[in-house]
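Good morning N.,

You mentioned wanting to compare the apo and holo forms, so I went ahead and generated the holo version with S-adenosyl-L-homocysteine. This is what I fed in:
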Amino acid sequence: MDLELLERTLSDAGEPAFRARQVWAWTARGAAGYEAMTDLPAALRSRLADEVPYSALTLVDEAHARDGTVKSLFQTDDGRAVEAVLMRYRDGRRSLCLSSQSGCPLTCSFCATGAMKFGRNLTTSEILDQALHFRRIEDVDHAVFMGMGEPMMNLDNVLAACRRLPDIGITHRRTAISTVGWIPGIDRLAQTDMPIRLALSLHAADSALRSQLMPVNERYPLADVLDACVRFHEAKRRLVFVEYVMLAGVNDRYEQAVALAELLDPAVFKVNLIPYNPTGSYDGSGSDAIAAFRAVLEEHGLRATVRLTRGRDIAAACGQLAAARA
Ligand code: SAH
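and this is what came out, ligand included:
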């Protein structure tokens, strides 16, 4: 929902100022549409239905994985593909994986989104409407910007959407923005008043290898990115989560685990090892190799977890949101 258009439409209609808040309160609680907003005059409800699209996104397709994960493919008004995912965990957690761009201009070699054509930044409404879509299905409480795109390249819109997420049930503390290491964005996030978590896609402790996997490392080199994360930690006093996708024979060797442990200050960073979801170019490390890598990190005092893979059978897992059909 375009909240500026909503406010303009309501004030053109001579409605009192509280109306916009009223409409948003219904929307954020998962109302199916304007017709459900029973304390609004009927004429106003139908005027809004005509003039303010309830969602900026049209649902094109939805896939359900055996583990309860739901992946939705949407289209913007100008026909861009956007994907978002609802992950359901046994402990009751309902976490959304949101997209910030249609496609991605960065070309990380292991990521399926990087292989598709870049479209554009998503608007604030297009980001928020992903979350609202799932809120209409059930209560949600966590969000990660780990869908399509690099959120720090669209930070104004991402932060504007984050500001509204608590109304939908997702507090800032339960929101994480993941970045390839876009330094200006990390510094800006450190300065916002919202206690949003920072996640860094690292994937290699060695700068040359990182450049091979993630060309953006040439623009924002590893050492400078880690300095920015340390500044973030100083400002926010929150651990930075490091994502490290496990690629067999590429970044999963014993020495590489030692190098990673030596690079990261355990007072600042916690590592999340990510089983690779096949996209063609690499082989994923096996579970034994991942466990061994993790053990090395922990022996060095660095906290490390292994990410639960969700939705692999519907290509909804990390790096698989390629939207080939759209
Ligand atoms: N551009 C941001 C936000 C996207 S997050 C970023 O890169 O952080 C998507 C996460 O999934 C990143 O950590 C990315 O490295 C990881 N990922 C990408 N492709 C993957 C794959 N094939 N298997 C597992 N993880 C992958």
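The chain has a mean pLDDT of 95.

Happy to go through it together on a call whenever suits you.

Best,
F.
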